[in-house]
User: What shape does this take?
Amino acid sequence: MDLDIHAGEFLAIMGSSGCGKTTTLRMLAGLDAPTSGEIRIGGELMNDVKPHERDTPLVWQSLALFPFLSARENVEFGLKMRGVGKDERKRRALEWLDRMEIGEFAERNVATLSGGQKQRVALARSLVMEPKMLLLDEPLSALDANLVIRMQAVLTRLQKELGITFVYVTHSQSEAFAMADRVVIMSQGEIAQVGSPKDIYRAPANRFVAEFVGRNNILAGRVTSQTDEYVCVSTPSGDFTAAAPADPRATGSPLTFAVSADLVSVSAEKPDSANTVHCTLISEEFIGSVVTLFLESVDGHEFKVQMQERDLIELDLCSGSQIWLSWLPENAHVLEGE
Amino acid sequence: MNQNRLLNIILALYVLCIFVFIFAPILFSLVFSFNSQRFPTIPLGHFTTEWYAKIFADPDVWLAARNSLIVSVSTALLATFLGFCTAYSDFRYNFRFKGPYLALILLPPTIPLIIMALAMLAWLSRLGLSGQLWSIILAHSVLTAPFAMAIIRLRLNQMDPDLEAAAWNLGSSEWQAMRHIIIPFSAPAIVSSLCLTAAVSFDEFSISWFVSGLNKTVPVVILEIVQGNIDPQVNAIGTFVFLTSMTLVILAQVFFISRQVKSHS
Assistant: This one.
């Protein structure tokens, strides 16, 4: 893989388990060695630099707080290893614990702290080192949903205030999209796509990203005709028009495109649109204000539609209802590859 | 409900029987050590500390006690050091032949003591090392290092494997991480192992008898007293040995179990 991390950005690396995202992070910290290739930090080649000689503190998924030390002693640890004097490191540790709003727990053994408090100790322990880059390995995965939202706010605020680089590994799309300036999607040790959360959500590069991120309807077929603006595709579910890709395709060549589930409209009568499919409603998934409909076209292809709950009420649907789906050609995004 | 209660009573009785079975002989030994009569018979004679006075006056006993102290303390230090190194190498590294390596390390306690003692004698005398205090120390270390390894390995098992890497990540060299993280974390097991290996070494007879030569330890002297003349001196000295060993074993338990409970709370 080839990746440039910009100084001062919040970069999220996202992928399913085993895709190599944690390994990437551990290589940055020097805990795993790359079998080939180079890692440079600030232009300096890091391949042979030992972990303790690097300035790359990591916030661990397990937190890895030292259980026999108090919160303050945990935060002081790195400074102690760097040879910072006793009074100085105590002052800095307490300052960071206060900043993380857990100053009152400084002398408590970390085992007695709650999940959220431990999380803050772990952050303080890394940040007290005043690094240029902070590595975070799924740090919020052990917290409950409410706490995750709060910690996300803490993290983004810290990153802006300190102006340092955050490299954040997660399998959670909501965490990555909520915090990151740029998101890297990884698959089997390779980068599938790099871009802003919006780019990745609205313009997935390939089938893997389209399936991994959000809810996309993916249709594959062959090119029948092409203009500068649009490309016409024939698929088993029907003929559709999509926005023309940057790389023109020959007529007859295979093509896959994705339509985000929230950009598909539903109507009882056949609409006047370039892209329509007649479907049967199979089931719906209600998660509050947003509802996802699962439908099946005549040829058996599954379609997903996301819509507001209040819009759904007007349609008066039940399982087995016959309805029409439609979407604008510019919302059909052509994917790389076949 | 009733049945459960009955079962509980039976179980309690069973446990009581086990304790009686184990501790009654020791208790008798203790009682007879203060008994004026030469032979352990009932009814008892009057209370006396004569036998204690006798063993305290015996220079052989003092010498043996000194030897035993040196041997058990040295053995505890050496065996615990070896055990720690083995436990850590097992915890930290994967290497070829790790299985056989561990099997060999854990082997000594499974060998009958008498065989081990004979083998030790043969080997050490060939090297010209037999009959020295530190030949007993060497032999005892071989015997007790596996216990040390087992106790410390169990403790390392409870450690988040990320802890050590977290220390490196915060700027500790491998030696600093060992000093500031691994050893403090293992400390209760290390103390426990020191007590236990000292207790085993202090009590051990067969190996000591074979390799000690003229440097007798307490168990060897006890045998000589028994062989020489039957008198309650043996009970007196036995009570001492028992109290020493029990104290060490209980200390080992306290350190280990109290930490186990804490780390789970």
